[in-house]
Records
---
Amino acid sequence: MSNFTVQHSLADLGTPFSLPCNPTPVAVPQWLAFNPELAAQLQLPESYWLTDAGLTLFSGNTLPDWVKPVAHAYAGHQFGHFVPQLGDGRALLLAELADSSGQLFDLQLKGAGQTPFSRRGDGRAPLGPVLREYLVSEAMHALGVPTTRALAAVLTGDWLQRETAEPGAIITRVAKSHIRIGSFQYIANHGDREQLKTFADYVIQRHYPECADSANPYLALLSAVVSAQAKLIAKWMSIGFIHGVMNTDNMSIAGETIDYGPCAFMDAFNPAQVYSFIDKQGRYAWGNQPRIASWNLARFAETLLPLIATQPEQAVEQATATLHSFNAENEAAFLQLMGEKIGLKAATKDDEGLIRDLLNLMSASKADFSQTFRLLSRSVPDASQGAAIQFADSGSWQSWCASWHARLAAQNIASEQVQQQMDNCNPALIPRNHQIARAIERATTEGDLTLFNCLHTALKTPFTLSEAQADLALPPKPEQCISNTFCGT
């Protein structure tokens, strides 16, 4: 493609923001998956599409001259405890590619071997987490959630020793940015105001250029990131998604979902649901995600204080006022999204009780989150149909429906139109934990990608479901339920 455009803006900042590093060659790379739609968006030359040149690029074995690999430096609070140096321990930023609109996207290998930030790790990724991230990140994109995306996945031909020996793999992921809150924490921890200013100016120029014209660009940057995160977390909550490890090093400055580790979509609704086996206290449970995002943003604000104002008290006052906008923005976004899910064209504060009562009913009945909302459109004309099967307490369900039907009637919108709106925002299919686990098991033990490919295809259109795909949408049977997922480091 003649419009192929490459930059290395982060790499060009030099140290301490990133360190040059080459991927470690792998034994016998093989294609697992490739994303032609994303490749076309990035204007990637077709010579890298499912070709030998592409295989050697996406395995890290041979890099073309337009690649300039670096490992990005960052720190982070992990489960509330500050670690001053983390960084890309198994990932390498290769380049930044521009799409047809000029928007830059990072091109990153994950699982490409040791870097200066690997500590004692091998820098590799097992096949299972690579397939999980590929499926879930692409599903999130199809659901309209800002996210990193998967461009390619390759099998390395090497085996990794985790709890057992597992095949190794590398995922090539694409993002507007891999800069995190922890990136700023790393620079701020060095105590060099000029380096911090250089980095903040870079982020403003690349991701939030409108902030440059503000009277206080760094306060405007904080406000922009707060707003992006508020909307992102509301999206997560509205589809029952649990990130699982919302450490500050896993929270993107660009407001994208990043670092799919012990993530999952809920089956039975439970506000206290967690999926990380590490999270014994429920720090990153579904219902805690807004609170944790707000806490993380406060850590981001702390890094910017020297830039916001010369007087510390004034900087704290201004940053605190900006941080206070998170809850209002997040709650407003969540209200609108949940209103749409129950058929409201424009939810108001008066609808909060109706939505809360439904969620309480779902929690009491352990109703399946995604199926309840998907079936709800069939309950518009008749409360005894559709989602009714999810509720053990028929009386409470009927009572809620009476209030809901009255609210729908007040809109003066045809029932068929309401139902269509609901089906357009309530997915028929999500990446179910047990289905992903089956796909990983078959790929790992038998080398069979059939179920992975089937899921990948179906998840591209999550709001429609063919008869042949119907089984993929079913909740797990009791013996199929999965309580823990893993990050694969």
Note: The first helix runs from residue 9 to 13.
---
Amino acid sequence: MLAVLYVGHGSRVAEGVHQLNQFLAQCMDQVHVPIQQICYLELVRPDIQEGISRCVRLGADCVIVQPILLLSAGHDKRDIPGEIEKARAFYPNVRFIYGRPFGVDDRIVDILLERLHERRDKRTRNERVLVVGRGSSDPETLRAFSEISAMLMKRGVSRVSVCYMAAAKPLLKEGLELASKQAADKVYIIPYLLFSGVLMKTIKKSIEAGDHQASFVLCRPLGYHPALIRLLRKRIEEATHAGLSAHS
């Protein structure tokens, strides 16, 4: 029997966990798989091993492990695969299929544009967009944001730059300073985040702490947008087809 195990990041903020669970409940209604469970990478139970155990107890002999992550980095490349390897030793008769994160996709660029247009002042002629990512030391993350910037520019956003909360440069403070100096009347800041929790508060504090030449407008994060449900369904379908092809 097939199962899907959704792997969220986990958060100390209860509202963040609640929002993810609500989003995944909507997704589960549209994914026609008999066993579906939720687990977390850190801070929240059940963890991945507990999630896999629940799937097996419910009768799963094939588990799609689907990360709820925006981009591929350390969690996607090391942490979750490591947990799957542990599970294989415990459950040698269970097949595990590892799904892809959301990744760079037109649907997500559409959400970024939606967030921009929610706050955009059409009277402002001299503007730029600053996309704020979590950050990672993985070069693939930097390439992904470069691709996202190019996709936004192809959609008519002429001036786009990127900064990061940690582990990559420019960091948030430097990104704000650079954007402020680049002759823009308004800088629209779009957080590349799923949840408006602790990191959003950090962005707000950084904006308020600086003495900037430009006017900053903080947009909403991506959030658990309905378009992400369609993208998640696509990732699960891809994983299912890949697993069936490999098994045939």
Note: The chain is about 50% helix and 20% strand.
---
Amino acid sequence: MDDIVKQALAKWPNVPSCTGWLMLDRRGNWRMRDEAAQASGSPGMPIRHEALLGFINRNYECDERGQWFFQNGPQRVYVELGYTPWVVRLLVEADGTLALKDHAGNDFEPAAVFADDEGGILFADTAAPPRVAVLHDHDLELFADHAALADDAMNGEFRWKDGVTLPLQPVRRADIASRFGFVQSPSANA
């Protein structure tokens, strides 16, 4: 968390939280959701300002109930999740090895890989507790190039790097939030 945010929290500790105004979509884009977007169920307008994106990413955390939020100075802004709290991109490094980067640009070291019943690929990392991230849909072909999939496309294995192979585990999309302990649509008062 940024020092300026910590200072604001100390100066104004009782600023009410808000919900519904910020979304992390299925592709890792931060989106502002005004009242009209919230009322219509629209994902809202993508945020493109690089400094603001960096500020959001540095101050993105989870509360004790599994609700993700952006600490905007003294105000906690709870985040609507398009799927998981993290979105990763799969890429090939200059040396030919694979890498995963989360939507904030940080390395993501997978410990497990899952295929959901809607065709999504998810990774759980080595953190404790593990973070779960959905793979950006633009990277599904690259994933398939490094996977051996069964006919059901929910089983098989993923050839990671340094000779590490991760078994592909089937999972229902509806079970992901409870399995990994996060809330997709948070409530500041829950």
Note: The chain is about 20% helix and 35% strand.
